[in-house]
Amino acid sequence: MSKSDRMAAALAAVLLLIGALPVQAQGKYGLGQKATPEQIAGWNIDVRPDGAGLPDGQGSVSEGNEVYDANCASCHGTFGESNSYIALTGVATRLNYATTLFDYINRAMPFPHSKSLTANQVYAATAYVLNLNDIVPADFVANKDTLPKVKMPAHDKVKPFPGLMSVKGTPDVHNVACMKDCAKDVKVSASLPAGFVENLYGDIRDNFRGLQTMNEQAPPASELPGHADAKAAPDVPKLLGTYACTACHAADHKVIGPAFQDVAAKYRGNANAVQHLTDKIRKGGSGVWGPIPMPPQSGPSDAELAAIIHWVLSQPAKK
Asked: What is the H or E stretch that residue 58 is in?
């Protein structure tokens, strides 16, 4: 038998052996599970420039004013003029599609409780921000029919990179576009307040459980704050991060709202302080510590809120 004949016989034997293997052993490793239509729908929330993906619902500019004041003004300013966060009054120069604004609000806002707004609220907030920028009139109602028709002032100025934004484009895998006419000096035009991320999140691994990723199992409900089966005493510093209190407050210095030590000093000796602060936190408002409003806080349970208020009132005086 020649060498080529021996090789052919060996190959035939291997193929016969593979064919004799049990069916369940071929390419099946017992790992993972098939995503259900409900799981896929929960993640499939992207909205494209032509409006594909926009949900049912609608929201007016006037309705958006209420949504904005309750969920957005604390960071972006009453009229979108915030200097500490992204100023929304310039959105017209940065987006070439109004649907992109809806998509971003829907998936990322309000920070840090993203995806907590209903479709109607997102439509309303989008309409309000567009009106702030004089792009739509005060009687505009945003929905999946009207929003894609809004023409942004920057529509023809912002050009997508074809290799990334179109299946017909050729990706620049060698970074040719980034290797010429490079800026020598980079100027940072905006940034988050100092200590913002650390104050808000603490350990990043304890956050962003809302969608329960397919790669990491979320903690059982009994371990989440406010659950009836939770036995341990409230961990107030952790609650401050969970409910985003530290996005606007710090213990010993002003961020957007007052320092906890300043609040304790203001109400020290006030017998009605707990009830007063409970009402203020639940209802929200402005005027006591400045013009920027605090949104109504409905997240903490009554027990958690009581623990937070007692903790704040126990803060020592500033040295």
From this structure: strand 58-60
